[in-house]
């Protein structure tokens, strides 16, 4: 069981990662591939991944023997380059201690490049960078736009659930079977048995679409903990997956109303909105009222003038 202990300060510091993290998603995908998680439904995907990984990615297997990755790999970066910069900034003492920890689980001596990484050799760091990039290009690059779409959907769902039901119900909703009791979030099926005390550092929630079972918790000292949890349709996304077409919001709202929503990123009077949309004041007022009733816009009156502006929900819909 995994038990995450919250203080009141931690609840105030829960946040949802605004974008997917390519290195974390890559690590989740490789973990699923080599540990055979997900059962037979993942078998075709797993076979394709393991057959297609280039030789340049092989060092990653040396670095993560027996499925025990060193903690300095646990970073959140918006791009592969950003993630690797964070890894490379790890202090040499932590790099050495983590390599010594994970290599305990390995049945064979460490290869030469791992020994170089332990010694801080720049050539070894370049080997790691090339291995991560090669694995990303093979495993994630073909489906990265789909992962981004899925993340936006999950982000929107999280935001609406928090607004409607609160943080506690949202947390347990992310993990069926978990419960929040007296400030402790319990995941009964998570292994190994582990207690993590946040102690005011907060928690970042990061969905993954390549890891079918159980949470992946990164607990770096002095930084917010990161909980990577399974999300999505239950299978790894594929390049052929039908995605929500860009015109779907227009099909629901209508093109003119969607354009009004996008214009309302900045405050507009009814007259200025009508002028921008090239419609009458009455039509612009009708669009603003419809968006306001759906919670996607607000209207503020100052004297005889009114100003319309979209809400956070409106921003999410406009960005879809």
From TrEMBL:
InterPro entries per UniProt: ArsR-like_HTH, HTH_ArsR_DNA-bd_dom, Metal_resp_trans_reg, WH-like_DNA-bd_sf, WH_DNA-bd_sf
Keyword check for DNA-binding: yes
Keywords carried by this UniProt record: DNA-binding, Transcription, Transcription regulation
Keyword Glycosyltransferase on entry: no
CDD domains to which the protein is assigned, alphabetical: HTH_ARSR (cd00090)
GO MF terms, alphabetically ordered: DNA binding
One protein family per Pfam: HTH_5
Highest taxon listed in the record's lineage: Bacteria
Domain HTH arsR-type intervals: 256-297
PANTHER family: ARSENICAL RESISTANCE OPERON REPRESSOR ARSR-RELATED (PTHR43132), HTH-TYPE TRANSCRIPTIONAL REGULATOR KMTR (PTHR43132:SF8)
Protein name: DNA-binding transcriptional ArsR family regulator
């Amino acid at each position: 069981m995994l038990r995450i202990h919250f203080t009141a300060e931690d609840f105030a510091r829960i946040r949802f990662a605004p974008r997917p993290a390519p290195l974390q998603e890559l690590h989740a995908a490789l973990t699923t591939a080599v540990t055979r998680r997900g059962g037979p439904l993942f078998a075709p995907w797993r076979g394709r991944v393991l057959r297609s990984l280039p030789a340049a990615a092989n060092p990653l297997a040396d670095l993560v023997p027996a499925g025990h990755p060193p903690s300095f790999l646990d970073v959140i970066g918006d791009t592969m380059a950003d993630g690797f910069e964070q890894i490379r900034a790890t202090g040499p003492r932590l790099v050495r201690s983590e390599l010594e920890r994970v290599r305990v689980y390995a049945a064979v001596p460490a290869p030469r490049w791992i020994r170089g990484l332990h010694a801080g050799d720049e050539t070894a760091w370049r080997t790691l960078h090339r291995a991560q990039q090669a694995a990303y290009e093979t495993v994630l690059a073909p489906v990265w736009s789909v992962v981004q779409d899925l993340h936006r959907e999950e982000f929107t769902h999280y935001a609406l659930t928090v607004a409607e039901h609160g943080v506690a119900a949202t947390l347990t909703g992310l993990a069926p079977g978990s419960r929040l009791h007296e400030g402790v979030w319990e995941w009964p099926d998570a292994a190994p048995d582990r207690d993590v005390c946040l102690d005011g550092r907060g928690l970042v929630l990061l969905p993954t679409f390549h890891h079918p079972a159980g949470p992946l918790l990164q607990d770096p000292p002095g930084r917010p903990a990161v909980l990577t949890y399974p999300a999505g349709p239950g299978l790894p996304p594929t390049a052929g997956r039908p995605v929500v077409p860009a015109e779907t919001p227009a099909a629901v709202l209508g093109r003119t109303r969607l354009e009004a929503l996008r214009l309302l990123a900045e405050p507009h009077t009814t007259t200025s909105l009508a002028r921008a949309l090239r419609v009458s004041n009455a039509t612009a007022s009708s669009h603003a009222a419809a968006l306001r009733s759906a919670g996607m816009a607000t209207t503020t009156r100052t004297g005889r003038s009114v100003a319309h502006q979209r809400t956070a929900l409106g921003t999410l819909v406009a960005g879809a």
